Amino acid sequence: MIAWWTAACRRQMFYENSEQKAVGLNGRTFPQPPLVWRVDNGDLKIRALTENKRPSAGRTLAVAPFWNLSDDGRVCTGTMRRPNGTTVTSIRNWERGFYESAFTHANVGRLTRHKGGFEGLWNGLADKRKPFPLETLIRLPQTLAQFVRGDRG
Question: Domain limits at 80?
Answer without folding.
Answer: 2-149
